[in-house]
Amino acid sequence: MNISKRSLDCTRVISLVRNRFEDATEEQQCMLLRGLLELAQPSTTNMEQPSTNVIRKGRPSNKKASSQAKNNTKRDPSPVGSAHTGKEQTTQQSSTTSKRRTREPTKNIVCKRRRTILQLKDLTEEELFEEVLDLFDPKIKEHIIERLENVAPDGHCGYRCCAELLNMSKDDGWKNVRQGMLDELRDHRDLYMTQLGGRKNYKKVERALNYFISTCSKKYWMQFPEMGCLFATTFNCVLCVLDPKQYTTYLPLRIGPINEPNIISIVLYDDIHFLKAFLKPNAPIPKVVPGWDHLRYPDANEWKNYVSHKFAEWEALIGYPPI
Predict the structure, then answer these.
(1) Where is the composition biased (Low complexity) (predicted)?
(2) Is this model's pTM higher than 0.70 or not?
(3) Burial class (CB in 10 A: 0-12, 13-18, 19+), 55
(4) Is pLDDT of 267 > 90?
(5) Which residues contact 182 (CB under 8 A, 6 or more apart)?
């Protein structure tokens, strides 16, 4: 990428770094973060400038060597010299050690080793509960979520969670969720073009949904906030998505509740895997995604009567992660 003085803008470079970070392994992510921290705060680097002049390779000229020897007033580091000046050397070593101790410690990024999504399947229900919710505010574990259940980590995990929580087939219910959302998206194109912010984002979501192969890459995953209200509208339910960095509820956009509203919840682990979350009885839920009130049809306003008190309870009990 060519860089000129007239195009000094870090936005594109930061975007490239972010994409590289998302595709990297956990070890590579740690290395990237350390490198970025050293660039942003040079004082945190592990590299130190040499305390003495560096002796370059090559034989010094006789004239220069003779001059250095003549002007040298230091003792040779021989055993005799060391014994004779032991007290002096001890003082110098103590002074050096003191300087090293007072130097500001290096601020390295410590990456806590977490289990991979493939390792989650080997955990008991209690171990899974602790492993995943350890990333969240402790109040989530205490007051909100009763238990968690894992699903296959094949890239369709978000769709699988939603399908199973809607009592669909564990084998291919995720396909029904994808197809239902795709039909809703296409049948109400204008609504979702507005919600998604234009044709480009609309097509991106359409391509992500229209994928029915057994395993899939990141661009076909269930995406939030883009697909939240779309899913809630398709299946006329309340969807709570709990991420350690953000808690959000999605409500239907077009129609009001039918019978008793179904509230389902999913949890995001390590930014790459969704799990089914079963809420405690009468548990509060986080506030609705911003913009819902401006996009919803008049009939959908009735959802407020069912969930507004739960929003208030969440606000009082849990609050929200800092932005």
Answers:
(1) 88-97
(2) no
(3) exposed
(4) yes
(5) 206, 209, 210
Written in H, E and C, the secondary structure of the chain is: CCCCHHHCCCHHHHHHHHHHHHHCCHHHHHHHHHHHHHHHCHHHCCCCCCCCCCCCCCCCCHHHHHHHHHHCCCCCCCHHHHHHCHHHHHHHHHHHHHHHHHCCCCCCCCCCCCCCCCHHHHCCHHHHHHHHHCCCCHHHHHHHEEEEECCCCCCCHHHHHHHHHCCCCCCCHHHHHHHHHHHHHHHCHHHHHHHHCCHHHHHHHHHHHCCCCCCCCHHHCCCCCCCHHHHHHHHCCEEEEEECCEEEEECCCCCCCCCCCCEEEEEEECCCEEEEEEECCCCCCCCECCCHHHHCCHHHHHHHHHHHHHHHHHHHHCCCCCC
Which CATH code for domain 122-318? 3.90.70.80
Q: pLDDT tens-digit profile of 180-232? A: 999 999 999 999 999 999 999 999 999 999 999 988 899 999 999 999 999 99
Confirm if 263 and 242 have CB atoms less than 8 A apart: no
Tokens 């087939």 found at: 169
Q: Give the separation between CA 135 and CA 244, rounded to whole angstroms.
A: 6
Structure tokens at 44: 């945190």
Confidence of residue 80 (pLDDT cuts 50, 70, 90): very low
Closest alpha carbon to 323 in 294, 290, 292, 291: 290
Are 116 and 56 in contact by the 8 Å Cβ rule? The answer is: no
